Amino acid sequence: MGEKNQTLVVGFVFLGFSGFPNSHIYLFLPFLAIYLFTVLGNLMIFILIRVDSSLHTPMYYFLCHLSCLDICISSVTVPKILVNFLSQQQTITYNQCLAQMFFLMTFTGTETTLLAVMAFDRYAAICRPLHYSRLMSSKVCTILAFATWVWGSLDSALHTALSTTLSFCGINQIHHIFCDVPPLMKISCNDVYINKMVVHITSIFVAGAPFLFTILSYCFILSSILKIRSTAGKRKAFSTCASHLIVVILYFGNGIVNYNRPSAGYSLEMDTLISTMYCIITPMLNPLIYSLRNKEVNAALKKAVRIWWKSKHHHSIS
Fold first, then answer.
1. What confidence tens digit (pLDDT) does each residue in 172-227 have?
2. CATH number of residue 165's parent domain
3. Which end of the chain has less Cβ packing within 10 Å, N or C?
4. CA dihedral 164, 146, 208, 126 (to 10 degrees)
5. What residues does 93 pair with on adjacent strands?
């Protein structure tokens, strides 16, 4: 069936930026700046955690994985968009489209599950402090991190396999800015009932369950924080999960809007804006949130800058 698809449609045309026909060169620079900031910002967080021993805790171990995922999500979509801006043709081949969809769904599905794991880590730290070292041992953390990647990969492989059964009958214009399951189903000319059912069922486990688990974890966390008598104690307890909570609200909020908006009533420009927020802007904001809101990351960054400055000053004198 995959060969049939390719004989009918060898590539696709993205219509997401068709509303800005003469502005592609002007869009190139801000998208390039966003991509560079995303990669460098998340890479900075990753390196800081790896080199600073004070950040070798379960919370920052998972943050390392989050930073990697944000780099991957942005790298799956933005470089192709940048190339298309320069060529003035928003195109992608059939095989590239399937590959982009597979990796994008793998990384977004993994991140959704990882955020739930990070919520459990905060629950264990605040609600079960005496058992924290056992609940979040290095072995447990490794297993949980590995499981999130496997979970995201399996979900993505299922959807990608089903997408290879779609026929497009010469229709090759995708009303989107990158390849994803819903836009491909929309232009398919064969029955997509099974594909839609699988999307709805798997979304319960890949998105719905982690979201509800995260909400439930924070209900317990909030209940425990309210029981703390001192204001300073409450502030300290909440500050340890404030950054994660902001990222959760941004990621799940944009994700819900991106995948559950009605098929009618949205303009192509609005679809483009929502997709850009979900897969391009949010990964850029995460390192900003953790560096500004998190005192330990902030302290590690200042320490690294001081070491670098002293080293540079020493070399200039010698």
1. 899 888 999 988 998 998 889 999 999 889 988 888 899 999 999 999 999 999 88
2. 1.20.1070.10
3. C
4. -170
5. 11
